[in-house]
Write a structure and sequence with these properties.
By secondary structure, this protein is mostly beta strands. The protein has no helices and 18 strands. The strands form 5 sheets. The protein has a 4-stranded antiparallel sheet, with no helix packed on it. Strands 5-6-7-8 form a 4-stranded antiparallel sheet, with no helix packed on it. The chain has a 4-stranded antiparallel sheet with strand order 11-12-13-14, with no helix packed on it. The chain is globular. Keywords: Repeat, WD repeat. One of its GO terms (molecular function) is microtubule binding.
Length: 223
Amino acid sequence: MPPEQLEMDWIYGYRSHDSRNNLKYTKQGKIVYPVAKVVVVFDAKGWSQKHFKQHQDEVLCLAVHPSLDIVASGEGGKSPAIHVWQVQALHVLSTLRGTHKRGVVELAAVLELSLSDGSVQWSVEMHWKGHVQALAIHPLKDKAITGGDDATLRLWDLHRHRCVLKFTLETASRAVAYSPEGAYVAVGLGGNPRKNRHKKDGTVLIYEEKVVDGAVQLGYLID
C-alpha cells in the first residue's frame, strides 16, 4: 500500500484583528485573503480553496496587481519576505527581501533564477527585523510600495527584483495606496498600540511620486 499522507483541504477563519485591506477579488472571481502563514484562494462558486504556503511567518498584508492574476503578500517575523506569485498555479514569480529593518542588518549575496530564460543571476538579499504592514502595487507599472514597523517606505522594481527607493517616515506605517493613475501615494501612519503612541499616529500623508535626474523621489503634498 502507498504511504498515507495528510494534505491541507480547508482553512477556517480570516486575519482581521490587526490588519486591514487584505481581502481581494481576482479576475476569475476568486477571493484572496490571509490566515496565519497561508494565503487562501477561495472559489465561492465551487466552494473550494487553494493555498499559497511559501511564507515562513504570518501574512500581514497583500495586494493584487491590476491584471488581477498576480498577488504580492508580505509577512512578519525576524526575516520577513514579500512573495509575488501567480494566482492560478500558485507559482512564485519573485521574492523581495532585505530593506525594511529594525536592529542589526546582515548582507548576503544569493543566486536567483531568472524568470524569463532560466539563467542564474546575482541578487542582493538582506535580513531585517520588524513586520511589513502595508503593501500596494502600482496600477500601471511593474513596481510596488511597502511600509512597516521600521518607519520607512520602500519602492520596489518588480521586474529587476530590487528596492529602488528608501523613504524615511517619522513613525511606522499601517497602510499604503496608489491613486488610480499611480501619480500619488497615500500613507496611513500608526505605531505599535502596545507601545507609546507617536504624535503622528492616525495621520494620512499624501506624496507625489516623480522622477528627478533619473531617480525616483517622493514629494510631500499634504497630511
